[in-house]
Amino acid sequence: QAQLVESGGGLVQPGGSLRLSCVASGFSLEYYDIGWFRQAPGKEREGISSISRTDGSTYYADSVKGRFTISRDNAKNTVALQMDSLKPEDTAVYYCATDLIPSTGRYDKYYFGGTEFTFWGQGTQVTVSS
Description:
Elements: E1 3-7, E2 10-12, E3 18-25, E4 34-39, E5 46-51, E6 58-60, E7 68-73, E8 78-83, E9 92-98, E10 110-112, E11 115-117, E12 119-120, E13 124-128
């Protein structure tokens, strides 16, 4: 059974860093695009970064450009999001996603970086506060 699990969230002071990890099981990330999204209370889910399966091209939202870095390790079936120079406005639940089509017939769909993402992890909380 396909699954994505995020980890690495927590509480950090402004200017600090966190590294999020997303581990896939039941399928290989080698054949899929991967994205990171976030959602703060009262706000819509927004795409912040993605990496393609074909050539490894990366994409970043303007709000995180220069501060966040996405990477993938196909051998470990994982994707990471390195977050530096964190700001209070980065506080949100962070989700990883792929363009795998679920077998359930019902799923959330969000577009970012030229990819429609359809399969999601459970999310991990990131709080940036002094």
